[in-house]
Automatic annotation (TrEMBL):
Aspartate/ornithine carbamoyltransferase Asp/Orn-binding domain sequence ranges: 169-318
Gene3D superfamilies recorded: Aspartate/ornithine carbamoyltransferase
Task performed by this protein: Catalyzes the condensation of carbamoyl phosphate and aspartate to form carbamoyl aspartate and inorganic phosphate, the committed step in the de novo pyrimidine nucleotide biosynthesis pathway.
EC number: 2.1.3.2
Molecular function in Gene Ontology: amino acid binding; aspartate carbamoyltransferase activity
Protein name: Aspartate carbamoyltransferase
Pathway(s) served: Pyrimidine metabolism; UMP biosynthesis via de novo pathway; (S)-dihydroorotate from bicarbonate: step 2/3
Binding site for carbamoyl phosphate: 54-55, 104, 134, 137, 280-281
Keywords: Pyrimidine biosynthesis, Transferase
Lineage: Bacteria, Bacillati, Actinomycetota, Actinomycetes, Micrococcales
Name of the gene: pyrB
Cellular component GO terms held in the UniProt record: cytosol
SUPFAM superfamilies assigned to the protein according to its UniProt record, in alphabetical order: Aspartate/ornithine carbamoyltransferase
Length: 327
């Protein structure tokens, strides 16, 4: 792999390779000494133009566990806040010898622009760009689904041997909430389709992206109807991204929680093996109740733990060999 920019261009085999490599990485994390020498001598730069906690820390932990040198770069307090362009920032990273760049940017397409330029000779990994995609979040979500649905309990401390090599053929995934502003929803849609899952979006019309009905997805406005008709194996709740909203997209928070929130009654009505996911951070009491977030069905903390293994796999596949193949 040369870069990891999206899931839409990933084939089934490429996706399964990443997920199976993540299983190998997860196995090493059960040892007393968790570090691997794989990326010793490599430099990974976390280039974050947007605030992040889980993703940035997860990538930092993943790179360090592969023995890479890590440089954390935040736009706040840097030359970017003084008007420096992405090109000039990239050329600075080139000058210091970056081998891999993990980039989060508010502009959709910024990672692809960086990867396609001649500004820097480094593998580029998209950690979220605007409302476009967030590929490693979708990969860690799929990794968590495989482990929970096919690999025993799937907790972070358990082996995922039974899930190796598996796709998600026939799995029903219902994604609920702020689809319009969610790069997580888009990345999950393309990846889950490649892995054979059936995806359903549930949202008010105002929170559906333009053109969503032309995508390979079933669309519902009623959460209760979707639960009844789709019989989901996975219910993924999305955060209301108020920071990206510049208008009123629903009447009020109480109404949203009543119509589109995962509460105790909806949780109790799920099938026996159904799991509850959320990419975080959660707005408890809005898109998800505390009871649902803390229930045995919830995979929220597993997703965080699994994120390190998945990001280790992505960095390994991008940076461990000669980057001659275009992806």
């Amino acid at each position: 792999m040369r870069h990891l920019l999206d899931t839409r261009s990933l084939s089934r085999d490429e996706a399964i390779l990443i997920l199976d490599t993540a299983e190998e990485m997860a196995a090493t994390q059960q040892r007393e000494i968790k570090k691997l020498p794989t990326l010793r001598g490599k430099t990974v730069v976390n280039l974050f133009f947007e605030d992040s906690t889980r993703t940035r820390i997860s990538f930092e932990a993943a790179a360090k566990r592969l023995s890479a040198d890590v440089i954390n770069f935040s736009a706040k307090g840097s030359s970017v806040s003084k008007g420096e362009s992405l090109k000039d920032t990239a050329q600075t990273l080139q000058a210091i010898g970056a081998d891999g760049v993990v980039i989060r940017h508010p502009a959709s397409g910024a990672p692809a622009k960086l990867a396609a330029s001649n500004w820097i000779d480094a593998g580029v990994l998209n950690a979220g760009d605007g409302t476009h995609e967030h590929p490693t979040q979708a990969l860690l979500d799929a990794f968590t689904m495989r482990r929970r649905l096919f690999g025993g309990s799937g907790s972070a401390g358990q082996s995922g041997d039974a899930s190796r090599g598996r796709d998600l053929d026939g799995v029903s995934v219902v994604i609920v909430g702020d689809i319009a502003h969610s790069r997580v929803a888009r990345s999950n849609l393309w990846l889950l389709n490649a892995l054979g899952a059936h995806v359903t979006f549930v949202a008010p019309e105002t929170l559906l992206p333009y053109g969503a009905r032309t995508w390979p997805v079933t669309v519902h406005h009623s959460f209760d109807t979707a639960l009844r008709e789709e019989q989901p194996d996975v219910v993924m709740m999305l955060r209301i991204q108020s920071e990206r909203m510049h208008a009123a997209f629903f009447p009020n928070e109480r109404e949203y929680a009543r119509v589109w929130g995962l509460d105790g009654a909806r949780l109790a009505g799920l099938g026996d093996r159904a799991i509850v996911m959320h990419p975080g951070p959660m707005n408890r009491g809005l898109e998800i109740s505390s009871g649902a977030a803390d229930s045995d069905r919830s995979t929220v903390l597993e997703q965080v733990a699994n994120g390190v293994s998945v990001r280790m796999a992505a960095l390994y596949l991008l940076l461990s060999g000669e980057r001659t193949e275009q992806a």
